């Protein structure tokens, strides 16, 4: 099994499939992330919001895997936006993770009502410059937010991490990401599990001799997106990673493309505050 890599606009590479840890308690995170690292994942996606950076950091330290072989992402929570708060939040995350730097640091939500995401971005450019983050990016940014960041004339976000699964394919945001040279990373790639029982997905999986989760993840991987599925079940953690070896026929990819319904599992970035 070889995990495909995506080259970011910084020149760094990120594994195309990583491991998400939303809703994993800090006390469980060390064990769950250790299982994922043993299964072969080399990218972990956490966030200040998740409250499990300490457990994630412990698993990384305990793994014995060289630091430069694990891609670590964390995120700035909304209440930490602002030119003074953001760099301090980075330091707290690094302390909890037990790391000198993260590979990717994201603004979690644009929270346009706060009106702080542009000054926050400029503050994160300082974090990039002093090496506390090897790349910086955004999450849940709509095209208008991306255009505003790029119009600052500084660093272009390396990644835009967005809700993306068969029912919500975010074609306008993905087009903006491509136009600006920003990699698309799909959160809730399985629709938080809801996409797995779709009859079309189930039929495609059965016919190709794979599981519904593998069929959906193979569809994401074929599109060139980064994905970060989450599970706390060891067999599913391994099953999801094994999707890198699944190739679906083009007509099956098109049938999953046709499942777009606009159904979100998370908040709307335009109003999330
Ligand atoms: P997901 O789409 O990865 O679904 C996870 C759920 O699907 C699991 O809890 C489990 O119930 C089920 N599942 C997973 N693998 C399975 C399998 N092989 N067979 C059967 N069921 C399976 O949802 P998620 O956790 O919301 O998203 C993944 C990651 O994305 C998160 O852990 C987090 O890291 C990130 N995320 C980011 C944001 C953001 O705003 N940036 C928001 C939500 C999630």
TrEMBL record:
Source superkingdom: Bacteria
Residues that, per the record, bind substrate: 108
An annotated Gene Ontology molecular function: oxidoreductase activity, acting on the CH-OH group of donors, NAD or NADP as acceptor
Keywords: NADP, Oxidoreductase
Presence of keyword Hydrolase: no
Keyword Kinase attached: no
Boundaries of every NADP-dependent oxidoreductase domain copy: 23-259
PROSITE patterns: ALDOKETO_REDUCTASE_1 (PS00798), ALDOKETO_REDUCTASE_2 (PS00062)
Record-annotated active site: 50
Sites marked Lowers pKa of active site Tyr: 75
Record-linked InterPro entries: AKR, Aldo/ket_reductase_CS, NAD(P)_OxRdtase_dom_sf, NADP_OxRdtase_dom
UniProt family annotation: Belongs to the aldo/keto reductase family.
Descriptive protein name: Oxidoreductase of aldo/keto reductase family, subgroup 1
């Amino acid at each position: 099994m070889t995990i495909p890599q995506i080259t970011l606009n910084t020149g760094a590479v990120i594994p195309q499939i990583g491991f998400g840890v939303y809703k994993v308690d800090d006390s469980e995170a060390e064990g769950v992330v250790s299982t994922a690292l043993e299964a072969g994942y080399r990218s972990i996606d956490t966030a200040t919001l998740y409250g499990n950076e300490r457990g994630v950091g412990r698993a990384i330290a305990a793994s014995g895997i060289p630091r430069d072989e694990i891609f670590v992402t964390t995120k700035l929570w909304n209440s930490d936006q602002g030119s003074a708060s953001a760099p301090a939040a980075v330091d707290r995350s690094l302390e909890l993770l037990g790391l000198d730097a993260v590979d990717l640091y994201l603004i979690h939500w644009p929270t346009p009502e706060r009106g702080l995401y542009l000054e926050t971005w400029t503050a994160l450019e300082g974090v990039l410059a002093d090496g506390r983050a090897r790349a910086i990016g955004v999450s849940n940014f709509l095209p208008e937010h991306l255009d505003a960041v790029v119009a600052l004339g500084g660093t272009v976000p390396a990644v835009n991490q967005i809700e993306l699964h068969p029912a919500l394919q975010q074609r306008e945001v993905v087009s903006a990401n491509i136009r600006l040279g920003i990699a698309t990373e799909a959160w809730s790639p399985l629709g938080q599990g809801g996409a797995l029982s779709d009859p079309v997905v189930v039929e495609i999986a059965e016919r190709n001799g794979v599981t519904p989760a593998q069929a959906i993840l193979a569809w994401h991987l074929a599109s060139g997106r980064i994905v970060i599925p989450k599970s706390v079940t060891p067999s599913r953690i391994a099953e999801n990673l094994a999707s890198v070896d699944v190739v679906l026929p083009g007509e099956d990819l098109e049938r999953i493309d046709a499942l777009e319904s606009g159904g979100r599992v998370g908040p709307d970035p335009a109003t999330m505050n």
